[in-house]
Amino acid sequence: MARTVLVTGGNRGIGLAIARAFAEQGDRVAVTHRSGDAPEGLFGVRCDVTDSASVDAAFAAIEAELGPVEVLVANAGITDDTLLMRMSEEQFTGVLDTNLTGAFRCAKRASSKMLRAKWGRMIFISSVIGLYGGVGQVNYAASKAGLVGVARSITRELGSRNITANVVAPGFIDTEMTAKLPEERRTEYRKVIPAGRFAAPDEVAGVVTWLASDAAGYISGAVIPVDGGLGMGH
Ligand code: NDP
């Protein structure tokens, strides 16, 4: 059955791969974008997840065009890496505001319509770094670990209404985000990833579409790694 899907940050990178995977299986897909045009063939809404009025307006536009959001993929995220001693409070709260509070704003806005429909899927894109930690990533790791608490609390609050909330924790995926890493860091990471390579965004997308499918209807509050074995045991 075709569903209405929203992928935040679905205009590029992992989010775009996720949006395209849902569209390919026949779902009605909306993506957020902050500037430029929406990707070809997808319904784009301008939205900055740090602004709840912008989130509300985006949901209203999607509801008018495609119907209420049944599958929310909270994917929008940023990094602002620096060592703890040098990290300003603004750098810490800025990353939290996008990655964690942004996901909260979208989940909250989506929840009322999911409750009414007695069906919903929320998928939060976290990171292996959330549980593994990362040098220079106190802000990012905190935001990504926080998503686990968000998904598990939503599971307890809304689980009896046929609403699931899960976390996907990618390892290193080839996108603009990881292209920013210095080559020596990329080489170091490749050495410790059992799979010996970074992944393609499509390898995350397949897990996300599966989590939204009826086959995964009894999975909630789970943290699914897609990391080539990097985070094993964490
Ligand atoms: P990119 O940097 O390629 O894309 C980030 C996306 O997030 C863009 O679409 C961007 O929109 C959007 N975004 C950022 N801030 C906001 C905001 N305030 N409001 C709305 N949208 C926003 O990242 P990736 O595709 O690599 O990452 C996607 C997600 O996956 C992130 O949450 C990231 O933390 C996570 N992740 C990535 C990994 C990787 O190896 N690449 C590994 C683990 C997790 P815009 O184009 O408007 O800037």
Automatic annotation (TrEMBL):
Residues 3-176 form the Ketoreductase domain. SMART domains: PKS_KR. Gene3D superfamilies: NAD(P)-binding Rossmann-like Domain. Keywords: Oxidoreductase. InterPro entries: KR_dom, NAD(P)-bd_dom_sf, SDR, SDR_fam. It comes from the Bacteria. The keyword Electron transport does not apply. GO terms for molecular function: oxidoreductase activity. Pfam families: adh_short_C2. The keyword Oxidoreductase applies. Belongs to the short-chain dehydrogenases/reductases (SDR) family. This is 3-oxoacyl-[acyl-carrier-protein] reductase.
